């Protein structure tokens, strides 16, 4: 049912990508005089005077070992936001095509749609924050190119029912993008395992959350080889800098440390839920598969401002659709969580 050539923008199909110096020569040499770099080095302890690998092969090779996905099925970008933007620019004709989002959800799907002049169709989640598959199907037409699904979802924290996502994958002729930024904290299986089953599936992940590399901006997309080829064709030639590549590769050797942090985060999340539930201003705490919890309160604005005055910053989500009165609270270190609870215990 899925044919990439039917949904690819004609100008992208015919695009000749920029050919960089590092595309035209691969391998090692003793003298590089091809890229107009500074031959003397960098005014730093580490030299960054040479352009980085445009396809980040060393990082992809290590990710391949961890994720069980061939390097040719991996795209690396400047955060997941770059992958989002490239998918819009590759598959959505401005002023013609549309995409579907399922609010409440990650806000960049909408922002990037607006930047790229792509119409947005909003199909709210159900009251228990699950996909309304029938309503989504009712909003699909011949110009619908992408369905964006965040699972575990931001800001609600829950995972989407797997069967619902698979129904969309099996019956939609466009792309279904499953954003798994928080998958490391979830008991659910990653949809990466389904890449060979569904040619229209794109799975996004990140090193910003569980891996603790938010400052490096390393986003990942996993998809069929033909989709990844399109994304590499559209991306800037050197979209991930050398420092981010080197540090990401170093971090990816420390799986045990990350797994220990994940376990501690989940333990702390469970403690936070139990402690927050005791406060009379907490009306509900929604189930979470992420490193945060969504807490419905009697006065989100008042509590938020009170915490700010005490040097504690959470995210006020009360203006977000279906999140009225809710605060999104990231799970911190044990000391940070104790400070949060102690401060809230004095709120009146």
Describe this entry's structure for a reader.
- The protein is an alpha/beta fold and 348 residues long.
- The chain folds into two domains: 4-25 and 52-253, Type I PLP-dependent aspartate aminotransferase-like (Major domain) (Aspartate Aminotransferase, domain 2); 256-344, Aspartate Aminotransferase, domain 1.
- The protein is 35% helix and 15% strand.
- It has helices at 4-7, 10-13, 21-24, 57-67, 79-91, 108-115, 133-138, 162-171, 225-234, 242-251, 255-276, 300-309, 334-344, and strands at 74-78, 98-101, 119-122, 144-150, 175-179, 201-206, 218-222, 282-285, 292-297, 315-316, 326-330.
- Strands 1-7-6-5-4-2-3 form a seven-stranded mixed sheet, sandwiched between helices.
- Strand 4 (144-150), helix 8 (162-171) and strand 5 form a beta-alpha-beta unit.
- Helix 5 (79-91) packs across helix 6.
- The longest helix is centred in the last third of the chain and has 22 residues, at 255-276.
- The N and C termini lie far apart (58 Å).
- The model has no long low-confidence stretch (mean pLDDT 97).
Strand content: 15-25%
Mean of residue pLDDT values = 97
Question: What is the overall number of helices?
Answer: 13
Helicity level: 25-40%
N-to-C SSE series? HHHHEHEHEHEHEEEHHHEEHEEH
- Which fold name fills CATH's third level, the topology of the largest domain? Aspartate Aminotransferase, domain 2
Radius of gyration, in angstroms, nearest whole number: 22 Å
Structural class from helices and strands? alpha/beta
Strand order of the largest sheet: 1-7-6-5-4-2-3
Specify the biggest β-sheet.
7 strands, mixed
Q: Write out the CATH superfamily name of the largest domain.
A: Type I PLP-dependent aspartate aminotransferase-like (Major domain)
Shape: globular
Distance between the termini: 58 Å
Parts with pLDDT < 50 across at least 5 consecutive residues: none
The CATH C-level class name of the largest domain = Alpha Beta
Could you say what the CATH architecture of the largest domain is?
Answer: 3-Layer(aba) Sandwich
For the secondary structure, the number of strands is 11
Query: How many structural domains does the protein architecture include?
Result: 2
Pfam families: Aminotran_1_2
Family: Belongs to the class-II pyridoxal-phosphate-dependent aminotransferase family. Histidinol-phosphate aminotransferase subfamily.
Pathway: Amino-acid biosynthesis; L-histidine biosynthesis; L-histidine from 5-phospho-alpha-D-ribose 1-diphosphate: step 7/9; Lipid metabolism
Keywords: Amino-acid biosynthesis, Aminotransferase, Histidine biosynthesis, Pyridoxal phosphate, Transferase
């Amino acid at each position: 049912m899925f044919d990439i050539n039917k949904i690819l923008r004609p100008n992208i199909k015919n695009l000749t990508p920029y050919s960089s110096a590092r595309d035209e020569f691969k391998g090692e040499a003793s003298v590089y005089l091809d890229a107009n770099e500074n031959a003397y080095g960098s005014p730093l302890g580490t030299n960054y005077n040479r352009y980085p690998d445009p396809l980040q092969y060393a990082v992809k090779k290590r990710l391949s070992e961890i994720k069980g996905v061939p390097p040719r099925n991996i795209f690396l970008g400047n955060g997941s936001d770059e992958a989002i933007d490239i998918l819009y620019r590759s598959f959505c004709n401005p002023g013609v095509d549309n995409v579907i989002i399922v609010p409440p959800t990650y806000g960049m799907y909408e922002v990037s749609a607006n930047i790229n002049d792509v119409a947005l169709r909003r199909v709210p989640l159900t009251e228990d924050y699950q996909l309304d598959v029938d309503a989504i199907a009712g909003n699909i037409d011949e110009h619908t190119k992408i369905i964006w699904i965040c699972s575990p979802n931001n800001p609600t924290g829950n995972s989407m029912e797997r069967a619902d996502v698979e129904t969309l994958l099996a019956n939609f002729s466009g792309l279904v993008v499953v954003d798994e930024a928080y998958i490391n904290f979830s008991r659910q299986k990653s949809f990466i395992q389904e890449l060979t089953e569904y040619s229209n599936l794109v799975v996004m992940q990140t090193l910003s959350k569980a891996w603790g590399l938010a400052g490096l901006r390393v986003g990942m997309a996993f998809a069929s080889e033909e989709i990844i080829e399109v994304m590499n064709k559209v991306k800037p030639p050197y979209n991930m800098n050398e420092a981010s590549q080197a540090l990401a590769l170093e971090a990816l050797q420390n799986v045990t440390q990350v797994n220990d942090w994940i376990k501690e985060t989940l333990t702390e999340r469970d403690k936070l839920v139990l402690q927050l539930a005791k406060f009379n201003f907490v009306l509900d705490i929604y189930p979470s598969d992420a490193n945060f919890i969504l807490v419905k309160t009697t006065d989100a604005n008042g509590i938020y401002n009170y915490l700010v005055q005490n040097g504690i910053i959470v995210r006020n989500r009360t203006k977000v659709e279906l999140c009225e009165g809710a605060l999104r609270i990231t799970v911190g270190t044990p000391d940070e969580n104790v400070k949060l609870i102690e401060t809230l215990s004095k709120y009146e």
